Every structure is written in C-alpha cells, then in structure tokens.
C-alpha cells in the first residue's frame, strides 16, 4: 500500500514533540572591507584566531571573506542570538574595517591582488589553500568573492522511522528522507529566491568589462528590474566542466556515484593548466572537480568528516546527516544577514519538502524544468504575470506560490505546536504578503531604496554596512561571553601550531594519501 503525504502528516502530528529536536545552524559569509568599502588585503585578524581551527570564525575563498559559524540550535531565537554574538565579537576585533553586508561584492582590486585564504603550513591548511588556488585558475577570483548564507538543517533521528515505514535501517530511512527532501527542494526552491532573494543589483566594475544584458542605474551600478538574485544566476559564470555535470538525486548511491565520477574524471582544459607552476602547487588535480565541495549547488547532503576523510566516503559509510541550503542571499536589511522570520519559514519549507510526495526525476536524475523555473525567478521573479512550468503546465508564480504556502501551513503549525507560540504561522503569513505585493520583497525593497538614495550600489551598500556596524558595536558582549570567544581564538591558534608541528609527511605525500582516501561508493 502506497504511503501518502496525508498519512505522513498525520504521523508527524502524533509525534510532533520530536520536532522540538530539529537542529538548525548557520554559516554566514561577509567580506572584510576598509572604511571606504574596498576589499581588505590585510591578513586574517590575529584576534579572530586561526581560520583553520576556530569553530566560530573562519574564511571561505579569500583571506578577506569571513565566514561566521554558529553551533546547532533547537530554536531560531537561540540561533540568531549566537550569530549576533559572533558578529559582535568580530567587530570587537576589526580595526577600521567593516563586514560588507551584501551578497554581491564590494569594490575589488585587480584579480591578481585578491588574496587567497591562507591556513598556515600544516598539510591540512595547505590542502585548503591549494584547493582555493585551483578555484582561482578555474573560475577566476572575482566570482569567488560573492557571499551568501548557508543554512544547515537536520531532523531528530527518531523522526525518520515515523516518516518512512519502508524496510531498512534508520540510516537507510534517514538518507532516503534527506535525498527526497532535496528532490522537492529542487522543485520548489524558486519560491525561496522570490521570497528572500536580495541581490538584484551590483557594482558595474564587478563584471570587469565583460559583455552583459543588465540595465544601468547611474554610472556605477547595474541591475535587472525584476531580478531577485543575480548572485544565483549564471551571470559571469562560465565553466563547461561544471555545466555538463548533472548529479542525480533519485537515491544516495547514484548521487555519490556521479560525484565520484566528477572528482576522478580528468578534464582537458584543467590538464592543460597542470597541477604545478614554477615548482608550486596550483590545483589539487586536473579533474572535473578537485574535491567534492567544488560542486556548486543550491543544496547539499552533508555528513561531518574527520581529518583527511573524504565527504563521499563519509556519506557512503554513515549516510546523510543533514542538509545545507546554499541559495539564501545575505539580507542587507539585517545586521547579521538573516532574521528569525526567514529561519522559521525555511524550517517549515524544509519539513514540507521532507514529508511531501517526492517522485523520482527522469531516468537521468535531472529535472530541467525545475532548473528553468529557478533560473527565470532569479532574473525575472517580480515580473508582472510571470508564468512558471509546473509538471508541463503553465502556472502563474503568485498562484503556485500561494498553493505552496497552503501546503506548507500545516508544517508551520506543527512547529508552533512543538515549540509553543505562533511564530511559525506569523512567518508564513509574512510570505503571503510578498506574493500579493512584489514591492515588499527584499529585492524590490533594495532596488527602491537604492534608487531613492541616488547613490551607487557601492556607496549605498557601504552606508548600510556602516550602520549595521554601528548597531553591533553599540551592543558589546557581556564580559563572560567575550572572554569565551577570546579563549576559543587563543586555543585555535595553539591547535594550528600543534598541527603544523605534528605533521610527519611532506605535502606531496599528504595529497597522494588524501586522494587515495577516496573510495568508490558501492553500487
């Protein structure tokens, strides 16, 4: 007998207390800039500890691209409180610098002068650095300075046996459930881009003179009038190796098999570059992907890994542990780039994706229709009368959006029942207003504010970032909290030194061992 979404919802209602164990965490990126809004070229501040080993603050692609990381929390308020504390800590360390609170970058120096992140001389640190050198060779440094908010989400272990009554272990059910979530996320993530996209404009010098189809707003700003997120568009992103890579989310084994193929298959253009130049490593290998994380996607199945352990191997052996949502823009109106309303809606949206029917994609495991819907919404999401493709039938964005919100509503109600209050229902109601009034979306508000200000994208964003900095600096951390961040920074520096002193093999041998740790997933 076929299980239905209605049956799963009923079982969730009977076990709603387990929803109070849902965990969510955030990784929020932000460029360090000087007081004029120009990318900082100074080293990672000593007061923030080691970017390699500090669990609160690290860097992403560039030495100047901060990544602020929370732990996992059972409610949105605690999550945002930690993220806010971490921002206050960072501002207590930054000297005449700001965190750029936009997804599209600040004023960048020439490509050659954008500093690649440095993690010290340990083999682990060098692996991270060389990987980033490879990204520079493959995609250029400018594109790597785009920032976003990554949202990590996991459900209670006991909930998977409630949702999935098919045969198998808890690990099987958990992995099936998260992969089913990802299929539905792929179908419906256009809605997140409409509701939360906040990158409709950028500084004209970001394109470095490339041809484009953007409109001009003054002499120094480019935009699209109905765009929600140019960050998530194909703007300036040209990479044939990744464009031909279409991973399959019909089941974990097939997904891992295709990902394994990508990290082991040579690519001619990268072979021409080679792995060394002037005796130095410039990329980890010449394959389609150097490592698994190079695959750019709006959501990923994740599993915590040990040192030198490969993600494919960890996922194959222990299954999916959580998902990482990667398509959220930085909210330029929030001092920390995201608010609790967004967090709660994303929770309800992801639970809906988990519990709803999630049929397999076509035989190749890729759904072009969903990709096309996503692409049109990031470029034209607020266009009056915009139509999308739902299962081969044309439907208005607003109509489909309201129907999805109707379907998400019971899951928001479940979170309210589990956690108390009505905050999830209120978060859902806030999104309905955006469907009825496109001018109330973050992308529309940003464009309107930009036009009203008469400023360039750079000057407007600098002013906004300064005001957020003032807000955060005006609320210093309690002494005990500040001391705990400072101690974590000190310990991270000591741990980096320990790693550097304990390495017993040269880097070439370490890279060989790292590649050898990759195991082909079983069929």
From TrEMBL:
Q: Which domain of life is it from?
A: Bacteria
For this protein, the Enzyme Commission number is 6.3.2.2
- Keywords, comma-separated and alphabetical: ATP-binding, Glutathione biosynthesis, Ligase, Nucleotide-binding
GO MF terms here are: ATP binding; glutamate-cysteine ligase activity; metal ion binding
Q: Name the pathway.
A: Sulfur metabolism; glutathione biosynthesis; glutathione from L-cysteine and L-glutamate: step 1/2
Q: Does the keyword Ligase apply?
A: yes
Residues covered by the Glutamate--cysteine ligase domain:
14-374
Q: Which reaction does it catalyse?
A: L-cysteine + L-glutamate + ATP = gamma-L-glutamyl-L-cysteine + ADP + phosphate + H(+)
Q: What SUPFAM superfamilies does the entry give?
A: Glutamine synthetase/guanido kinase
Enzyme class, top EC level, equals ligase
Q: Which Gene3D superfamilies match?
A: 3.30.590.20
What GO CC terms are in its UniProt record?
Answer: cytosol
GO BP term, example = glutathione biosynthetic process
Enumerate the InterPro entries for this protein: Gln_synth/guanido_kin_cat_dom (IPR014746), Glu_cys_ligase (IPR007370), Glut_cys_ligase (IPR006334)
Task: Tell me the Pfam families matching this sequence.
Answer: Glu_cys_ligase
- Please give the HAMAP family that the UniProt record associates with this protein: Glu_cys_ligase
Family membership, please give it.
Answer: Belongs to the glutamate--cysteine ligase type 1 family. Type 1 subfamily.
What's the protein called, per UniProt?
Glutamate--cysteine ligase
The scientific name of the source species is Achromobacter arsenitoxydans SY8
Q: Which gene encodes it?
A: gshA
